[in-house]
Amino acid sequence: MALLALENLHLSFGGVAALAGVSLEINAGDFFAIIGPNGAGKTSIFNCISGIYAPARGRIVFDGRDITRLKPHQRAELRIARTFQNIALFRGMSVLDNVKIGRHVHLRSGVLACGLYYGRAAREEQAHRAIVEREIIDLLELQDIRHKIVGTLPYGQQKRVELARALALDPVLLLLDEPTAGMNAEETEDMVRFILYVARVKRLTVVMIEHDMGVVMDISDRVAVLDFGKKIAEGAPAQVQQDANVIKAYLGEDVEVA
Amino acid sequence: MQSGDFRVTYASDERIFETRLPIVALVGLLAALAFVPLVAGTYWLDVLNRIGIAIIGAIGLNILVGFTGQISIGHAAFLAVGAYSTAIFETKAGLPFWLAIPLAAAVTSVFGLVFGVPALRLKGLYLAIATLAAHFITTYGIIHWERMTNGVLGFNVAPATVFGLPLDSDARIFYLIFALVVPAVFFAKNLFRTRVGRAFIAVRDRDVAASVIGVSLYRYKLLAFVISSFYAGVAGGLMAHHSRIVFPDAFSLLVAIDYLAMIIIGGMGSILGSIYGAAFMTLLPEVLKLSATSLTGVYPNAFGLIASARDIVFGLAIIFFLMYEPQGLARIWMRFRSYWKLWPYAY
Ligand SMILES: Nc1ncnc2c1ncn2[C@@H]1O[C@H](COP(=O)(O)OP(=O)(O)O)[C@@H](O)[C@H]1O
Ligand SMILES: [Mg+2]
To answer: How many whole angstroms separate alpha carbon A235 and alpha carbon A117?
Structure first.
């Protein structure tokens, strides 16, 4: 059974159909890529999965459970994490706090315990701080900037902090919206290395929206191609690359498919 | 491991204070506080008492506005509910102050919860207007529910008594006020180094991202209102015992604006900033009054002139901080401190 199934999703904004009946099945352990021209509806798919948009029609099934009507935070509790195409970090907080808040769903202390900082609240904070440092900060090489305020960091580092925050959730399903967009070659290479590494080590199921064809072809198991809110092709990267519909959809765009 | 970060354990990094010195300074400060009533005259004690109450109220407002980003012009209404509930519990139900104040704070929290509901749908200016409505509804209720509130006349509140000792002087009430200021400060400080406080800030900075990472916006927005109004409830209860009289005009819209000014001038999203702001806003009129008094010999009209100067100075201060120092006095103090830390090598 698929870990995530999108069944016939429809979504529109004032007459513009962002999604016109999209269905996808993503198996556990897959590295799944979604590509397509700008405005094709890729980000809208993520927004439906994470509960920011409610599809007008269709169902989203995660791990055998219909999550179409759940609130975003309830989906986080099911360990679905994501990053945003336009960075959405907590700008006023340090890198460390941004990553720590990624662990929100794993912490249990209530207001009183937190305000008094006694017993469990203190133990919990310290235990999770250690997890964050060991498993996220070190892994993504953020040690040197952990106390910096996020808003002051260069773009590439902010993207990495966003990945760190998503990983802190300890996700089962990780959604990455153009994780290398706007990065130079070196930053892109680092980012891809991090993503591949965590996907393998943590055995994540990853869905990645990506513009860089080279990246997509290199690292994904399966690719779906979206155009005007519809899936026009799906398959192994090499197969999709040859698809006549895909080539046509990309002709107008300045993206190299060959 | 890395250079430039010399802390050995994460636990030490999680402390509120970075070095031992501030803890020593803090204990010293607390001890000094205990001696203040023995040395200070009633004039300054009264000022300090009002600062203490303002600190609690300002922290409450800062938790809601500065830390969680939910604009509120309803703080005076929350203070009023705290003060009136305290007065009613004591004069009508005969409860002692140590039961009446916590109960009043609980009532105020419920009140805050109810008036926080619009925040689930409204943001920014719209939410501000909704809280403004809350203010007027509350004021209306207080004036017209005469059987309970005595209408425009209000209440006289008997002094709180501790083991038969009435807290009827500035010196005695000082201990009650600061016995609540200290835990109020620490509770808030702790809150913002743990999950709950981080969730508040996340809601403020990026609500969509906060919800996607697992923060329930409903829960935390309402929680911010509840905690904020609990603080306001305590501050209101203390106001009732400090001035020993509770009446509607003491909780006008101007009071709500004074509190907003405190957190803007002191520093939005800063606990210490709330303290600086409370002190600043309470001291400024006193300083103006004192200078007026000393000037009347030379210039007989000084008093009237300076009374009207108050609002102008406040207005200018708010505009200055909004434009040039949005992080308030807290930020200025930090810069000053880091300058002296490096002295004499600072340049
Ligand atoms: N919040 C929104 N309001 C209005 N239109 C939107 C909104 N989000 C997406 N759209 C529209 O939906 C379509 C798909 O957008 P999107 O999913 O962001 O595309 P992609 O990520 O593939 O570039 C576009 O036409 C876009 O303008
Ligand atoms: Mg997009």
So the answer is: 52
* Ramachandran angles phi, psi of A189, nearest 5°: -60, -45
| Residue B79 near residue B216, CB atoms below 8 Å | no
User: Looking at the partner chain, which of A72, A97, A110 has a beta carbon nearest the beta carbon of B198?
Assistant: A97
Average pLDDT over chain B reads 87
- Domains and their CATH numbers in chain B: 19-342 (1.10.3470)
Tell me the shortest Cα–Cα distance from A173 to chain B, in angstroms.
Answer: 13
Contact B171, B49 (CB under 8 A): no
Three-state secondary structure readout of chain A: CCCEEEEEEEEEECCEEEEEEEEEEECCCCEEEEECCCCCCHHHHHHHHCCCCCCCEEEEEECCEECCCCCHHHHHHCCEEECCCCCCCCCCCEHHHHHHHCCHHHCCCCHHHHHHCCHHHHHHHHHHHHHHHHHHHCCCCCHHHCCCEHHHCCHHHHHHHHHHHHHHCCCCEEEEECCCCCCCHHHHHHHHHHHHHHHHHCCCEEEEECCCHHHHHHHCCEEEEEECCEEEEEECHHHHHHCHHHHHHHHCCCCCCC
Q: Is A41 in the pocket of ligand 1 (CB under 6 A)?
A: yes
Is residue B183 reached through a cis peptide bond, with omega within 30 degrees of 0 on the bond before it?
no
Interface-testing mutation among A67, A78, A96, A104, with chain B (most B C-beta atoms within 10 A): A104
Q: Smallest Cβ distance to A116: which of B5, B190, B217?
A: B190
The yes-or-no answer to whether A1-79+174-188+203-258 and A82-170 have a common fold is: yes
Average pLDDT over residues B38-67: 94
Domain boundaries, chain A: 1-79+174-188+203-258, 82-170
CATH number of A82-170: 3.40.50.300
Q: Please give the radius of gyration of chain A, using alpha carbons only, rounded to the nearest integer.
A: 19
Question: Do the Cβ atoms of A126 and A109 come closer than 8 Å?
Answer: no
* pLDDT of B295 strictly over 80: no
First to last CA, chain B: 30
- Torsion region of B124: left, alpha or beta (phi above 0 gives left; psi -120 to 50 gives alpha): left
Q: What are the residues facing B225 on neighbouring strands? A: none
Q: What mean pLDDT is reported for chain A? A: 91
Q: Residues A101-118: what's their mean pLDDT?
A: 90
Tokens of B9: 């354990």
Nearest-Cα residue of chain A relative to residue B208: A52
Compute, in angstroms, the gap from residue A3 CA to the centroid of ligand 1. 25
A157-172 per-position pLDDT tens digit: 999 999 999 999 999 9
Domain A1-79+174-188+203-258 in CATH 3.40.50.80: no
Contacts of B191 in chain A (CB under 8 A): 111, 114-115
Kindly report the protein residue whose alpha carbon is nearest to atom 26 of ligand 1.
A39
Yes or no: say if A104 and B214 are a contact pair by the CB < 8 Å rule.
yes
Most confident of A190-194, A250-254, B62-66: B62-66
B102 CA: distance to closest CA in chain A (Å): 15
